[in-house]
Specification:
This protein has twelve helices and 13 strands. The chain is α/β, with parallel strands linked by helices and 305 residues long. The strands form four sheets. The chain has a seven-stranded parallel sheet with strand order 3-4-5-8-9-10-11, covered by helices on one side. It has a two-stranded antiparallel ribbon with strand order 1-2. It has a two-stranded antiparallel sheet with strand order 6-7.
Length: 305
């Protein structure tokens, strides 16, 4: 598995992050097999959140892997906090209590990365800074990031937070690529020229923030996957054509499309299927040509100006 630096940190992480949002759908034996399959492929970065399964996903993960100090040394663990029923909460009190809960469920003394999950309209950045300082000083969290935030929101945090923001987890896939397509529709009057994210892609590249695409195979907002979907005949035909060339599955090519971007992204998988997980990890070995990358982009219905 190829690795990249997580943001501006010195932490080497695999280019594929293993999402654990659905691990509570597995029995313990299957969950253990799932985690081991990821580790065998070199994917030892596991993405969690305190709301996944209302915390049960973190518990099941720790139980499945038989968490111990020796096991912990082999893992890179990330979790997220800030979403509560009916609200978002970036208060110092909630961040600190959330991390304590995460650590208890994961049966560990620290997590490698903590992301703020969805922007909180009532955020007091001074409180976030105080929470981050306490978590860093105590050793409970080693790196910090955000999720679904645009540049100005990150800048507001950075005015008070002294720790580097190393990651921003954003929805991105071949069919949800406005942060990419907006870049070549500058000064146009078409819908693709609408700036929906404040130029977050270029911002993250400029500030050494790793983009972690979530739902890399979804279209819309959890409407379904585009792979093998009759709604996307041209896209699937192009992906299948390229997959045949590299003797891999379509999942691998869809993931490789994200990895080909020079922003050095770290896509987050969502599957609990062992073969699809392997196919995701295999994308680390594929380097699409410029023609192949643009061919897939256009087959998804995007138009070059």
């Amino acid at each position: 598995m190829r690795t990249i630096k997580l943001g501006s940190s010195d932490l080497d992480v695999p280019v594929v992050s293993v999402g654990c949002m659905r691990i509570n759908s597995l029995e313990k034996q299957d969950a253990a097999r799932f985690v081991q399959t990821a580790l065998d492929a070199g994917a030892n970065f596991f993405d969690h959140a305190d709301i996944y399964g209302k915390g049960t996903c973190e518990e099941i993960f720790a139980d499945a892997i038989g968490m111990s100090s020796s096991v912990r040394e082999k893992l890179i663990l990330q979790s997220k906090c800030g979403i509560r029923p009916g609200m978002f909460d970036f208060s110092k009190e909630h961040i600190l209590s959330s991390v304590d809960g995460i650590l208890k469920r994961l049966k560990t003394d620290y997590i490698d990365s903590l992301l703020l999950h969805r922007p909180d309209a009532l955020v007091e950045p001074e409180e976030v800074a105080a929470a981050f300082d306490e978590l860093e000083t105590s050793g409970k969290v080693r790196h910090f990031g955000v999720s679904n935030q645009h540049p100005r929101q990150i800048d507001l945090l950075k005015k008070y937070v002294k720790q580097p923001i190393v990651a921003n987890q954003l929805q991105l896939s071949i069919t949800n690529a406005t942060m990419i397509t907006g870049g070549f529709n500058v000064n146009m009057e078409n819908d693709a020229a609408v700036n929906r994210d404040g130029g977050v892609l270029d911002y993250c590249r400029l500030h050494d923030i790793t983009i972690q695409p979530w739902s890399p195979f979804q279209f819309g907002f959890f409407e379904g996957v585009f792979l093998d979907n009759a709604k996307f005949p041209e896209l699937n035909a192009k992906i299948d054509e390229i997959a045949a060339k590299y003797s891999v599955g379509n999942t691998t090519i869809a993931m490789a499309w994200l990895l080909r971007h020079p922003a050095k992204m770290q896509p987050v998988t969502g599957t609990m299927n062992l073969q699809r997980l392997k196919d995701c990890c295999k994308a680390s070995e594929i380097d699409l040509t410029r023609e192949e990358w643009y061919g897939i982009l256009l087959a998804a219905g995007n138009v070059l100006p």
